[in-house]
Please model this.
Amino acid sequence: PRQAKRARTEAWDKFQSAFQKIKSAYDAHSHIIEQELQSIKEGFDEIEKQKEECMSEHGNMNVGENDLLQINVSGKIISVARGILTQVKGSMLEAMFSGRWE
Model:
């Protein structure tokens, strides 16, 4: 019985020692991972900021040729696809309705 109790105590001590080593390693690595995650978040936020600045400067680039626009032509509202207005590259209409306006 004494020997069995001593063996259980030694086993328990080894278990606790191993657990502490694993916990220390986990804590060290989780801290590194948290730092990396924070760095990634900061990088993403910077990219989003640059994207907003670009959109502000050059217009919203999330436009499509099939977007329906309602425009006022001499007091009459008409609907037209963006692609119709932008099909002649370099024209005033293309510049106005391409999505790159300021």
